[in-house]
């Protein structure tokens, strides 16, 4: 999902969100402008069986990797219908991340960092810990371009790397078990992580690496966390997994002064627990200090891979969940009281015709429902690839306007303000491929 500013007005800008989906025949790009509207803005058929598709924010640049050539990355200008460049690697590509300064390609035991404006290879991180899922996160704030990836294959250590200065920033001992999910907030000042156990989610400051928050997703069972995502203001963090529940956590520091000014029975009990925790084993003490979910969503599916994102659509907070069953689900989120989120729309992202939508539910007493507002074939031209030194040989140099900053009109194709992006693919294709 991606969001972008709508205009130059000084009032809080409208946001636009997009969804990228890999399919058997290619890839599809969708734009979400309203809760009840999902527009397919482009369908690429340059190569079949796409399992990675990453768009440069809201620009016309899209990076594609196909099952037929898993070691080759293609960069397209989808509005022109042209290939800007392609690049091949020594092993299968597991993930791609990009912002206005850097394009990062992650293999199982190496990471390649490119200058996105001319695709020159700037740095190769060789012999990185085995990373079979290609787990990594790149800050969308290109002024720092922090890159996070596993620092160990056996414990949950995070390496934070500055992709601009090409130097290691810090190592964070985040979890006892190997990492399963990583994400930065939009400014790159916070980093969230989860381990393979999936019971605890932690948030750290960047670049200091100090633990800021710790949330408990559950205790009854271990789960596989499939995605983490901050809200645009970094006040909320959502987490989805292979279970039927999506959790939303609220990032707020509890003020002890308020409890002292207006003492209550619950505050008194809380203080007693805090005092008692100092005499308990470390694991029990940590559990007592972990916050629980502020809001939850019960999905009508179980065991399917999905991704989640927090968005503001039509001036209201929403949770978006894209699932491998080919649907996009949109829920209302109550930012004041939290609780169970309400499903308001279901969109089909599959290639079949006659999309099947679920109409919005009747108004309820929830915050979001109460204040809701009414909604208002490509060219086959191929450009030259790359020389051995990693620079463009005769291909296009990515135009400067693709990296322009600042809020602008949505209809202006020459400007693309900051966004955050999550990509999903429609088919259950394998993440690791045999050599």
TrEMBL record:
Record's bilayer topology term: Peripheral membrane protein
Top-rank taxon, per record: Eukaryota
Keyword Repeat annotated: yes
Gene3D superfamilies documented for this protein: YVTN repeat-like/Quinoprotein amine dehydrogenase
Main location: membrane
Key words of the record: Autophagy, Lipid-binding, Membrane, Repeat, WD repeat
Subcellular localization, as worded in the UniProt entry: Preautophagosomal structure membrane
Gene Ontology terms: biological process: protein localization to phagophore assembly site; response to stress
Gene Ontology MF term list: phosphatidylinositol-3-phosphate binding
Listed GO CC annotations: phagophore assembly site membrane
Keyword Repeat listed: yes
Secretion signal span: none
Family named by the database record: Belongs to the WD repeat PROPPIN family.
Protein name: WD repeat domain, phosphoinositide interacting 1
Native species: Amphiprion ocellaris
Gene name linked to the record: WIPI1
